Amino acid sequence: MSVIIVKNKFYLLVLILLISCNNYYNVKKINTISDLQSKTDRDHSLLSVLPILDLNKTLKIAKLNLAKIEDKQLDSIAIELIYFEYKAYINCVNTIYEGMEEINHLNKVLDTNMEQLNNIKSDYKNSRSKRDDLTPHLIKEAKIVNETSIKVKELVQKLETQIVQFDTLNAKIESLVSL
């Protein structure tokens, strides 16, 4: 009888070890997901740091200055003087406008990423067994989160540069318009 009890204890111990290994595996994946969620939160914060109101204000100023240029009856000499500044100004304004559109798109992508991560995390948490079937989804989502993070950082850097460039070009355009 004691041999049976010892065998049962051994099997129970092996079973506990197997369950704990599977749970450890899931906990490890949950930690990975938490890291990805933190990265997504940081990207959201980075996008929100961009002064959206200043971008709108910048576009309103540009629209006003462009309207002033169109209203003026400029001769060919004045047009040649203004052309190079005007072209750079228009390119800068277009880049800022496109950046604002991209901010909206990236915010939606970040929301989707967070929702996907929450779903995968929930699946790992609610499972008592090792979930190898979720690994491809987690890998795919990690790739998407990392690519989105790179896009966010590039966009923020590009828009910060464009705002500085706009301020410089705007001063030149306003001085040419006031002539």
Task: Give me a quick take on this structure.
By secondary structure, the chain is mainly alpha-helical. The protein contains four helices and no strands.
How does this model look, in words?
By secondary structure, this protein is mainly α. 90% of the residues lie in helices and 0% in strands. The longest helix is centred in the middle third of the chain and has 50 residues, at 76-125. The N and C termini lie far apart (107 Å). The model has no long low-confidence stretch (mean pLDDT 80).
Spell out the blueprint of helices and strands.
Layout: H1 2-49, H2 52-71, H3 76-125, H4 135-177
Give keywords.
179 residues; mainly alpha; 4 helices
Oligomer: single chain
User: How much helical structure, as a percent, in the residues?
Assistant: over 70%
Describe the global form. Answer: rod-shaped
Whole-number radius of gyration? 28 Å
Distance between the termini: 107 Å
Could you give the order of the helices and strands?
HHHH
Helical segment tally? 4
